[in-house]
Model the fold of this input.
Amino acid sequence: MDELRGTSVDRVSTGLPPKAPAGAAGSAVSSVPPARAAGAPHASRPRHHRRPAWPLVVEGALLALSPLLAELVFRLAIMSPVELPDPSIHTSYLVDPHQVYARYQAAYASTARLREGARVGFVVPGRIFYELFGSVGGFVAFRYLLALIAVVPAYVLVRRLYQRPAAAMTVVLILSCPVFVRAWGTDYPNSAAISYLTGALACLGLALAARRRRSAWVAAGAALVTLAVWAFLTAAVVALPALVVYVAIRSWQSRRGALGDVGMLAGSAVVTSGVLAVGSYFLIGPLNYITPTWQAYVYLSTPSQQVQWHSTNWHWLPYDTYLLVPVAVLGIGAVAFARWPRRLPPVQSFLVVSTALAAGLMAYLQFFRNVQILEVHFWSSLLWSGTYLVLGLALGELTRRVGDDLLGRWLPVAVVVAVPLVYESRRSVPAFTWSPAGVALTGAVVAVAILARAGTALARPGRSALGLASGVVVTIAAASGLLVLTVAPAVAHAHIPHTVNDPPAAYAATLGVNDALSIDEYRVAAELPHFTGEPAYRGEQLLIWWPIDQFSQMIEPMGIYHAGFNSIPGPWGMLAPVAARKIEQRRPGQVLLMSMTGFELQSCYDALQQFDPRLVRRAVLSSGPVHLHVWLIDLERYTRVEAGRLR
Done:
């Protein structure tokens, strides 16, 4: 808990050594207490007053409970509505990865579709929690851990530099941020990567600030970076600039220390990768996850895939106002930490520069290298890891002279709690675009930061009306302005040519909402692999058939079986020629019929007569108002052939 004990804000935040106490300017002898005279009573020995331990215990307990408290106060959406089948594809690896490999390993090989199983930084710990607590329980427990991975190192970092109130404010900002909450709400691997990156950046910042135990922070940061990259390869776009900037700053501090840190970074990364390989072998199946990751990267980099998934027209950008948030925060950070070069604070410089480089690299990949990294919120969300650390430190800097009394120190924390609560009570943010409202709001937030910086510079240390007013105003402006930019709905517009029609980020549906329906849908979808069971032989593929008019309701169930690749095309209840050709080509041993109403299931069964269908089992999987009617059918035209081969 030594890292929780704060130091002088005015000196640490500027990167200068702390002032020597008054009277310590003499010789070294003057700092040594005189020896006790022989025979002097023991009571004359100076006693060191020890601080009670209970404040630190309470502080640690509140930090450990902070995700639960945030859920109760802000009514966070633990699960988010599924807009694409992609998160549910990952759910199938959490539920029963062995079935995926047994059924589809050969069929998926040519298109690198096993890449979801290679995202071991997400799947391995997710599998552990699923095995311990079941589907919904494992989902919630894993998200709780991910939230702690994000907020605990962030709290310790800001606590070290700016004391408890600023650290608590950072925790509240992260836990109430719609981007973090939305990422944690699905089984897409950005849910893990955004937390790993936040924790990693905070650990590396602590390594720069530490006078002792630096190696422990470096090792922890490297382990979290490695987990992030192996959870979601796109995390490298944030991780690589951070590592480069960290090594550069450490080299400026100490070249010998930098070489040691590089060795620690590499060693920790190797060890973490090895642990993940062992976990992958026992919990998923393959020992080697690096080759499938590389194959997926090569496949998705082909021109045909880039044309399919990347928007060549940039005119979608003004409709995504949440992408202005990193711009605004970097502006606030630049205002808060502006110094002469020799006085730049190393920790703050590390986070601002690395986040700016990551944002620039994302923009380059999106607009010059045909990578869909900004236009899809699953990918762009990773930028928020550094963004909100910069925000927490910047507000800590701009509120450091709000006053020494209890009310003054904790008033900014009350503000960042109140802003989401006010939004929840109204939920009436209008739709707008970058021009002019978005850019104007971004500029206004940065302008308030400039005024607050001036007020902080003029305010006296301790109790000061100017310091208090400056800190409260900039906190209100930053918290409310960034929240509005994030949750503002997209302005309705016609389809933009040469763009991919991905669903917009549902950031407005993260605070003050009821997610019971999403939980029920997840519970039902996670039961599907248990219902179908293990294949009768290796390579016994399973195709799914579902009614197209229930598309929005079926996204999660059909995602469990990689809907776009394994669905029978054509109308529901009637086998179209294109559907028969797909069955003949894929030669599946089984077909799974799924419907929310149960209508026409018998018609579908009858339509499969040419393949000798046999009903294996049927059920209604239910949770709350969600009822999924399922029939599992063997196609004996193919199962008999395969059984003969096995003999």
